[in-house]
Amino acid sequence: MRFGVGARVMLHVLVDAQGIAERIHPCQTSLTSGALSDSDAARVRRAFEASAVRAVARWRFSPARIDGQPMGGHLVFPVDFRPVEEGPQVLVPGPVDPPPWHPVGEPHQHR
Asked: How far, CA to CA in Å, does 78 sit from each of 7, 34, 51?
């Protein structure tokens, strides 16, 4: 990315019984730099989120199984982007946006 910024995009993914991602929602994008304006940071977050969603949409998952039968499930995991330059990476957390299918009353947690 031209800003020399890295990111961690936390994704919520609904996977069907065939291992295909049915829905993908970026719930939080943290950047490795706080030196961007708010509008630049929002634009950079959207670019990282779009890249992460496009990549994960092509993945195939091993579905969960109950009594040997495949079933869909819900995953939460990070997709990391690192800038080219070396050195320590400090993430500046972005806003949290729970997925639209998140059950009401269920705590929203991720690492």
From this structure: 10, 20, 13
pLDDT tens for each residue of 62-102 = 988 999 999 999 999 999 998 766 666 677 778 888 888 76
Give the pTM. Answer: 0.79
Concatenating the DSSP letter of every residue in 19-66 gives SBEEEEEEEEEEES-S-S-HHHHHHHHHHHHHHHHHHHHH-B---EEE
Sequence-distant contacts of 45-50: CB under 8 A, at least 24 apart: 45/7, 45/94, 47/1, 48/1, 48/7, 48/9, 48/81, 49/9
